[in-house]
């Protein structure tokens, strides 16, 4: 099974395995990784916006709908993907969760806001 390493803006690194065909969002949710999912993973928002650090070619191709939805995201880069649309194949991937996605996750889980840590490298 392929390995997915999630890195979030708080400095947390979570390495898990996923099944080929699973979306990055499905894998994150199965392992309590803080990745936004305001629309429930149906490509209707950009709260699951991530940057693929390694293994971009091991994910499904980006659809036109995903490209259009990424236009709503903040700080879109050439390696940007929506976690709900990026499907895993047989190879490993390293995923950086964007600040906007982490913020969306905390907004979706207000009971867990007390867990919020300062961004890595920022003052307490």
Structure description:
The chain has a five-stranded mixed sheet. With 124 residues, it is an alpha+beta fold. It has three helices and five strands. The protein has a single domain (3-110), classed as Ubiquitin-like (UB roll), CATH 3.10.20.30. It has helices at residues 24-30, 64-70, 99-108; strands at residues 3-7, 13-17, 49-54, 80-82, 93-97. The longest helix is centred in the C-terminal third of the chain and has 10 residues, at 99-108.
CATH topology: Ubiquitin-like (UB roll)
**Structural class determined from secondary elements:** alpha+beta
Count the domains. Answer: 1
Largest sheet: 5 strands, mixed
Shape: globular
Cα Rg: 13 Å
Oligomeric state: single chain
Task: State mean pLDDT (0 to 100 scale).
Answer: 94
Question: Helical element count?
Answer: 3
Fraction in beta strands:
15-25%
CATH class: Alpha Beta
User: Largest sheet, order of strands side by side?
Assistant: 2-1-5-3-4
Number of strand elements? 5
Estimate percent helicity: 10-25%
CATH superfamily: Beta-grasp domain
Distance separating the two termini: 38 Å
CATH architecture: Roll
Sketch the topology as an H/E string, one letter per element. Answer: EEHEHEEH
What tags apply to this protein structure?
124 residues, alpha+beta, Ubiquitin-like (UB roll), five-stranded mixed β-sheet, 3 helices, 19% helix, globular
Structure described in brief:
This protein has 124 residues and is of the alpha+beta class. It is built from 3 helices and 5 strands; from the N terminus they run ββαβαββα.
Layout of strands and helices, then pairs:
Blueprint: E1 3-7, E2 13-17, H1 24-30, E3 49-54, H2 64-70, E4 80-82, E5 93-97, H3 99-108
Parallel strand pairs: 1-5
Antiparallel strand pairs: 1-2, 3-4, 3-5
């Amino acid at each position: 099974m392929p390995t997915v390493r999630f890195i979030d803006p708080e400095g947390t690194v979570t390495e898990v395995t996923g099944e080929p065909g699973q979306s990055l969002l499905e894998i994150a949710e199965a392992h309590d990784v803080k990745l936004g999912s305001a629309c429930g993973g149906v490509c209707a928002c950009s709260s699951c916006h991530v940057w693929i650090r390694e293994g971009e070619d091991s994910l499904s191709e980006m659809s036109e709908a995903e490209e259009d939805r990424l236009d709503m995201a903040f700080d879109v880069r050439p390696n940007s993907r929506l976690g709900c649309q990026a499907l895993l194949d047989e190879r490993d991937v390293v995923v950086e969760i964007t600040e906007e996605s982490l913020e969306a996750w905390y907004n979706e889980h207000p009971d867990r806001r007390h867990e919020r840590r300062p961004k890595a490298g920022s003052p307490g």
